[in-house]
Known about the structure:
The complex is a heterodimer of chains A (263) and B (237).
Chain A: E1 12-21, E2 24-34, E3 39-43, H1 50-57, E4 65-71, E5 77-79, H2 85-94, E6 96-99, H3 103-106, H4 113-123, H5 129-142, H6 159-171, E7 177-181, H7 189-206, E8 209-213, H8 217-223, E9 226-231, E10 234-240, H9 241-246, H10 251-258
Parallel strand pairs in A: 3-8, 3-9, 6-7, 7-8
Antiparallel strand pairs in A: 1-2, 1-4, 4-5, 9-10
Helix pairs in contact in A: 4-5, 4-6, 5-6, 6-7
Chain B: E1 9-20, E2 26-38, E3 43-46, H1 54-61, E4 69-76, E5 79-82, H2 88-97, E6 99-102, H3 114-124, H4 129-142, H5 159-171, E7 177-181, H6 189-204, E8 208-212, H7 216-222, E9 225-227, H8 229-234
Parallel strand pairs in B: 3-8, 3-9, 6-7, 7-8
Antiparallel strand pairs in B: 1-2, 1-4, 4-5
Helix pairs in contact in B: 3-4, 3-5
Amino acid sequence: MTPMPMTQVPLLAVRGLTKRYGERVGCLDVGFDLWSGEVLGLVGESGSGKTSVLQCLAGRLEATAGCADFFQRDGTIVDILRLPEAPRRRLARTDWAMVQQNPRDGLRMGVTAGANVGERLMAVGERHYGRIRREALDWLGQVEIPQDRIDDLPGTFSGGMLQRLQIARCLVTRPRLVFMDEPTGALDVSVQARLLDLLRGLVADLGLSAIVVTHDLAVARLLAHRLLVMKDGEVIESGLTDQVLDDPQHPYTQLLVSSVLQP
Amino acid sequence: MSESAPPAIRIRRLAKSFTLHNQGGVTLPVLRRLSLRVDAGECVVLTDPSGSGKSTLLRTIFGNYKPQGGEILVRHGDRLVDVVSAEPRQIMDLRRRTMWYVSQFLRVIPRVPAVAVVAEPLRALGVGRADAIERARAILGRLRIPERLWELSPVTFSGGEQQRVNVGRGFIAGHPILLLDEPTASLDAASRAIVVQLIREARESGTALLGTFHDADVRDMVATRVVSLAEAETEAA
């Protein structure tokens, strides 16, 4: 775990992000700064707009308005909402990663586990077979997949293993910004804890910045440093995760927190 | 410490109430214009009966509760940070390097072994894994947690064991400010004595402590000053 540097420029500065689907609002005037090493949670019910925010930032949806200034490795700043296709793809390969709710959407099911991890490395220019295989083996170990499964197809993996494989595929290129869409949403409760703990450790050890969409407040508490609470497309409350969950200010957040069932 | 040194914590006119929007919008005032200072090397003990807002005050200082007004100036390295108006990432930095809150209950993370839970504040400061684990083992031993439990998640620990893990985690990194919320509540006499010793050592090394202790004996053994919220609310700072 590396201490978070108190840098003066945020990794990502989002202002006025708006997405309309015709008359309907996806998200409206969303703004926040994400600093290096920070994990930001977007919480709210389904339909609150959190996925629209994530999809616009990840370049999977076109924003209607707003800007999102991303601080690149070379020190320059680009608005990722206005980026042409080619440089956006380059960033998506190198600096970003997206962990999908359903690991089958983030993996290639027709190639082996090792190839799923190695492919991302090849996409950033690695060509040496031995190094790629070593790195893939190392990552399988880090996500607690037995290394003798490296030549197996993902279709033979359990749901929890698939999600861990997707995480290895995402992190192998050391991205600086990771988008996560309900990363534990498709898993049984019994494997959620293991995945959450793994993600917590990796995020801290690699000093990653991440934006995590989740409707599960327990997941948000474990993973996120800060929260944005969304309702009807707008951010209605934001702050330190424990402050928002332990002393919610907005009526809707109070309702959300008090509605959680205790086992 | 010279007289010109600013206090570790200086609170002025702090106001905290809770508005329950989904229960008829009722507002519960808890802290009203509260002023208090805590210096390095002091252990200030709050003496009010339960339900009067002691935990609320500790949590508000820690940035866990959001006050309506006033200021909470905390000495953070060579700067003063006002918790009331600070950005979340400033509070995160404050918690990493300056201020720790030992709550009554450990929030247990599934699968993380006790030794890693205790080592975490050191790891957050950049201490290497091996060194942090070694120091965590030392403090767990001192707190009389049986060694066979160190590699297990505290999920299944008894209340007293969890509390000791929480205390170990609170004292391991030598934060200059410690907020203690009933740290001895569910401990037996022997464990209580160890916590008292830890508090005294921290005090002597210049830590500023503010806490609540149910137990009058413990209070008498650790306190350098005793304050009630009622006094702190009338006193001009």
